[in-house]
Amino acid sequence: QDDEGQHGVLLETAKPQLKKPFFYQVVVLNDDYTPMDFVVEVLEQFFGMNIEKATQIMLAIHHEGKAVAGVYPKDIAETKAQQVIDFARAHEHPLMCLVEQKS
Ligand code: TYC
Predict the structure, then answer these.
(1) Per-residue pLDDT averaged across 50-62, rounded?
(2) What is the predicted ipTM?
(3) Mutation probe of ligand 1 site: the residue of 31, 33, 96 with most atoms within 8 A of C-beta
(4) Alpha-carbon distances, residue 44 vs 12, 15, 71 (angstroms)
(5) In angstroms, rounded to a whole number, what is the distance separating the alpha carbons of residues 29 and 33?
(6) Where do the H-state alpha helices sit in 65-98?
(7) Regarding predicted confidence, which is higher, 10 or 22?
(8) Atom 12 (ligand 1): residue with closest C-alpha?
(9) 30 CB within 6 A, ligand 1
(10) Which atom of ligand 1 has the smallest separation from the CA of 96?
């Protein structure tokens, strides 16, 4: 038991920066103004969801403040996040999303 605990501490201190470096979550945030059907369209168009899944995720964002729309390598996650923001701005909606390293 002591050995296991010590082992865990050693692993954590030796390799903190090697924890899942490859995948990033695109997190979509709630706001008070973007129409629900626009968010559903975004989730379908940029994250390949069907209408049922897109509606479910949109409602999760609406009720909980945010949700993960997809998980990708860093460059793809950042490109998708920027595309969503650009698309929302082109339609004059304040929809925001961000990229988080998966923990
Ligand atoms: N809260 C918005 C509304 O009531 C809908 C919404 C859902 C906005 C999800 C953004 O990411 C979002 N019209």
Answers:
(1) 98
(2) 0.98
(3) 31
(4) 39, 38, 15
(5) 12
(6) 74-90
(7) 22
(8) 30
(9) yes
(10) 11
